[in-house]
């Protein structure tokens, strides 16, 4: 296969072209997506809380002990 044949094959490929068709999700797909989105949101919030708690703990360990100078 030479270069011209390959470019012709790529030009005829319809995989990435928009067709105007839209996928209408079913009720089950919508519920599954909503559950997945809630799980992701909770995981992100838990991660942020963990990073915050770790940061506060490490910062508190660096504070000078007592008021001695």
UniProtKB/TrEMBL annotation:
Stretches with biased composition (Basic and acidic residues): 1-15
Transmembrane segments: 38-59
Swiss-Prot/TrEMBL keywords: Membrane, Transmembrane, Transmembrane helix
Region (Disordered) location: 1-23
Keyword Transmembrane helix annotated: yes
Record has Membrane as a keyword: yes
Protein name in UniProt: Protoheme IX farnesyltransferase
Organism in which the protein naturally occurs: Parvularcula maris
């Amino acid at each position: 296969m030479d270069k011209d044949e390959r470019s012709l094959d790529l030009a005829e490929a319809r995989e990435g072209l928009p067709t105007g068709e839209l996928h209408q999700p079913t009720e089950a797909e919508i519920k599954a997506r909503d559950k997945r989105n809630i799980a992701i949101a909770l995981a992100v919030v838990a991660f942020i809380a963990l990073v915050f708690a770790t940061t506060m703990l490490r910062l508190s360990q660096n504070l000078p002990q007592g008021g001695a100078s």
